[in-house]
Design brief:
CATH architecture: Alpha-Beta Barrel
Bound molecules: iron/sulfur cluster
Number of helices: 14
CATH superfamily: Aldolase class I
Radius of gyration: 18 Å
CATH topology: TIM Barrel
Length: about 325
């Protein structure tokens, strides 16, 4: 299975319950960024630029747990910055697992050995390891030699110890279809449980021209869609149709909300109008329909998975054909 069965069941129950309660704009994933500091400075990372003045800030533990309780999302993606540098990372992870939240730690893998001594495998815990292509490319993207080999060593260690491991790789303009295939085959051989392949996010604070434009996506994602037939790529087939340009999707930015030391970041993971003191304030200050319909200029080239996979999750069940494709995809 590409996604844990327990997570799929919990997610299905949660979405049904919120819809039954008449809610339209509810979160599915909380991107919890307890800090923005990192032990790398990767090409294309918007966070270390946007938050350079507050890079040393760390969220108090109670505030991080409180953010999860405040929004109620069943999936908590702990990211950053490098979340394994957060001084309360083990206690935060344990606290969220005790509350039966599905926790995903998005990491560059460098500090994993230290972390696994403190937190045992759990069906509620998985790791999402950032790996941007094969050795030479990855080490250039993260600007440090040896990090690719560390990632591979840590993936092997996590699998041996019984943790669930997935990877996250970003397709930039210069990423070749051949290298995408090479990495997917390589990670398949390592036995990773899932691979997420996404178009690079064009952060509003960055001006470099490394990101795919909408018209450049179809060719590269045709390749990804083909590979998804044989490998554990976790992008949904509906989202892949969107990336290759065969269908349109509206955005659902409220399904993935972001909380960092400055507050609730809105309107979405990618663009920042402000930071709000409470989850309720984020909602009352945001015109969700405006962003849903991609009217903002900053939405023009965006096909960010968190906005559009949220739409796919909310629409599950409305088309029998699409739903059957999704079930087959995840069970394979
Ligand atoms: S289209 Fe992209 S930038 Fe616009 S609201 Fe959705 S996720 Fe944010």
């Amino acid at each position: 299975m590409r996604v844990p069965l327990r997570q799929m069941i919990d997610l299905g129950r949660y979405i049904r319950a919120r819809k039954k309660a008449g809610e339209k704009y509810f979160p599915i994933v909380l991107m919890l960024e307890p800090l923005h500091a990192c032990n790398l400075a990767c090409l294309g990372c918007g966070r270390i630029v946007e938050y350079k003045d507050t890079i040393r800030d760390q969220m108090p533990l109670e505030e991080a747990i409180g953010a999860a309780e405040e929004c109620g999302a069943p999936i908590i993606s702990i990211c950053g910055g490098e979340p394994l540098m957060y001084k309360h990372i083990d206690r935060l992870t344990q606290a969220l697992i005790e509350r039966r939240r599905h926790v995903m730690i998005c990491t560059n893998a460098i500090l994993l050995e230290r972390f696994v001594k403190k937190v045992a495998p759990s069906p509620y815990l998985s790791f999402n390891i950032h790996i941007d292509w094969m050795r030479e490319t990855h080490d250039r993207v993260v600007d440090r030699p040896g990090v690719f080999d560390t990632c591979v060593k840590m993936i092997r260690m996590l699998k041996e110890k019984g943790y669930r491991v997935q990877t996250n790789s970003t397709i930039f303009r210069e990423t070749s279809a051949e290298e995408v295939e090479e990495l997917v085959r390589f990670l398949g051989g390592l036995g990773v449980d899932g691979m997420l392949l996404t178009p690079g996010y064009h952060y509003q604070v960055l001006t470099n021209d490394i990101y795919l434009k909408s018209d450049e996506m179809p060719y590269k994602f045709h390749k990804v869609r083909k590979l998804a037939e044989d490998y554990k790529i976790i992008n949904t087939p509906i989202y892949l149709d969107y990336l290759v340009g065969e269908r349109d999707l509206l955005c659902s930015p409220w399904t993935t909300v972001t909380r960092n030391p400055q507050g609730w970041k809105g309107p979405c993971y990618l663009i920042t109008n402000g930071h709000y003191k409470s989850f309720a304030e984020l909602h009352s200050s945001t015109d969700w329909e405006y962003y849903r319909t991609k009217q903002d200029i900053r939405c023009r080239d965006c096909k960010l998975h968190s906005g559009f996979e949220g739409t796919v999750a909310l629409d599950f069940g409305t088309s029998l054909k699409d739903s059957w494709r999704m079930v087959r995809h995840y069970l394979s």
